Amino acid sequence: MNEIIKAMKERRSIRKFKSDMPSKEDINEIIEAGLFAANGRGEQGAIIVAVTNKELRDKMSVDNRIIGGWQDENFDPFYGAPVILIVLADKSCRTGIYDGSLVMGNLMLAAHSLGLGSIWIHRAQEEFEMPEYKELLASLGVKGEYEGIGHCAIGYYDGEYPAPRERKAGRVYRID
User: Which of 16, 60, 79, 140 is the most buried (most CB within 10 A)?
Assistant: First the structure.
């Protein structure tokens, strides 16, 4: 079987990560794969903010938990992953949401190909409407208006790798 198709079929969302930090080389390779995602009209309107700083990562986890409505203060919506790659889309780019979604897919497949686990965590849209996250972008030199697409939480999975769920029938319609 083709290695890319194999990775697509094998990748699973991980909900328990070890605290061990992946290598900078692996993180950079994952980011580069994300930047090569297909994008509308070649605009490349999605950006990635890589967070490996534990203090900021933990603050984002708390904010994400509050936005998500979880009451348990010990719940980590990033499941302990030490790396959070946030994908944002330029609001002026007509295909930004789609482009950012493709970036997320590439990030998760790249992580899997390197033996790392990943999961797409939502609520980036709400987070990056908050003043402190707009200020974070400004402090990084990001100009323009950006919409949060998702958080790609990455790390070494802790425990058994999840088995695939059976695929639902009736999801393909053909016109020959």
Answer: 60
Tokens linked to 113: 């190909």
Strands (E) in 14-172, as ranges, are: 46-51, 83-90, 117-121, 146-155
To the question of pTM greater than 0.90 for the whole model, the response is yes
Question: In this predicted model, what pLDDT tens digit does every residue of 26-53 receive, in sequence order?
Answer: 999 999 999 999 999 999 999 999 999 9
Give the Cα separation of 176 and 171 in Å (integer): 16
Question: Going by DSSP bridges, is the β-strand pair 83-90/146-155 parallel, antiparallel, or unpaired?
Answer: antiparallel
For residue 132, give Cα distances in angstroms to 63, 83, 115: 11, 20, 34
Domain 14-155 bears CATH identifier 3.40.640.10: no
Residues 124, 111: Cα–Cα separation, whole Å: 20
Domain ranges of the chain: 14-155
**Model confidence pLDDT, tens digit, residues 138-152:** 999 999 999 999 999
